[in-house]
Design a protein that fits this description.
By secondary structure, the chain is mostly beta strands. 8% of the residues lie in helices and 57% in strands. The protein contains five helices and 17 strands. It is globular. Keywords: Signal.
Length: 361
């Protein structure tokens, strides 16, 4: 099963990259094409879970690299000292490392711990006559994210389950001497309640309290996982993302669909045009369509390649976020509003899955 980190504005989103579902699914013994296995799954009356037959295996270690080349940027600001500018981004690179390990694994309760280290950078086309302070501040700047999370699956019975995830992350351009937890820490709590209709069909409803679109809000979501036959299925958390899955073989899967990706970073700025302004919060969200292929290299080692097109939704810079109580952040106008042109995207991934000998035990 693929792991994607994707969200849709206006209605909201839940569960970064299907990670929550991918990591808590049971051993993939109930998979097409063997119809006998599906029959056995019904006979055994396993406790409910969100996965369905035909999905890929849960991922334990993931190394991911993404590249978006050559796209334009237009920046405007109500502050005269900052000004307006048009430029060209030569490339946007993203690197992501994820690690997952089971803590508890029994029929009634499963818990997985996760660690994530990621960074992305923007390289601009120079020279920029005249240069623009905002571009200079994020040029070659590693925008980092370090996070830890706990993912819990609680089967209630053969038909119902719920999943909870708690996550804390430090997002910004910091280094080890600059980290201030109060400035960079963002927390997210997610909950999903679901129904396992059959080994090939599950659905559920949930919500997230977090920073899906930059500001702290509650976002709803609808889970829909269904395998129609030995070759075709759908995996979706609507309206955040949806994929049509094609099982070419047990060792090769194709996906096609849409998703939304987003991030929020606190960055230190210099010579931005306002002397008292030292920190900005950069919020990015984008919608993308893509095609992805996942293929086994050897037993527990897989790779994935992805190509698609990205359309920007938000890449604005704000003053440090102001909280309005525990749940929400106050709405504010951006210090700099940026519009990014659409761009092609390319993604390559290597990941580890449980060896077959473990799944057969």
């Amino acid at each position: 099963m693929k792991v994607n980190n994707k969200w849709l504005p206006l209605v909201g989103l839940l569960f970064s990259h299907h990670i929550l579902l991918a990591q808590v699914q049971p051993d993939s013994t109930n998979r097409y094409p063997a119809s006998r296995q599906a029959t056995n799954a019904v006979d055994e009356k396993e406790f409910a879970n969100p996965s369905v037959i035909g999905m890929g295996k849960g991922k334990g270690v993931i190394v991911n690299y993404e590249w978006q080349p050559d796209f334009g940027i237009t920046s405007t600001s109500p502050q005269e000292n900052i000004g307006n500018k048009q430029g060209e981004v030569r490339r946007n690179n993203k690197f992501d490392l994820k690690l997952y390990a089971p803590i508890f694994n029994n029929p009634h309760f499963k818990m997985v711990a996760g660690f994530n280290y990621a960074f992305e950078e923007f390289n601009f086309e120079y020279p920029l006559p005249p240069e623009y302070a905002f571009y200079n501040n994020i040029e070659d700047r590693n925008l980092k994210s370090i996070s830890g999370q706990l993912i819990m699956l609680r089967p209630i019975n053969e038909k119902n389950f719920y999943v909870v995830r708690a996550k804390g992350e430090l997002n910004g351009d910091y280094n080890s001497k600059q980290v201030a937890v109060s400035d960079y820490l963002k927390t997210t709590v997610e909950f999903l309640y679901g129904w396992k209709v059959s080994p090939a069909y599950s659905y559920g409803f949930g919500a997230q309290l977090g920073y899906a679109l930059g500001r702290r809000r509650i976002y709803p979501a609808f889970l829909y996982n269904r395998t129609f036959n030995p070759k075709w299925g759908i995996e979706a958390i609507l309206p955040a993302n949806a994929d049509v899955r094609y099982n070419q073989s047990e060792r090769s899967l194709w996906f096609a669909g849409f998703s939304v990706d987003g991030a929020s970073y606190n960055i230190n700025v210099r010579n931005i045009g306002i002397p008292e302004l030292e920190t900005l919060e950069l919020r990015r969200s984008e919608i993308r369509g893509r095609v992805r292929w996942e293929r086994e290299i050897y037993d527990f080692l897989w790779f994935g390649v992805e190509a698609g097109y990205r359309q920007n939704l938000n890449f604005n810079a704000f003053e440090k976020e102001a909280n309005d109580g525990f749940f929400f952040a106050k709405k504010e106008d951006p210090v700099i509003e940026n519009k990014l042109k659409g761009a092609a995207l390319f993604n390559v991934e290597i990941f580890l899955v449980p060896p077959r000998r473990f799944l057969k035990q």
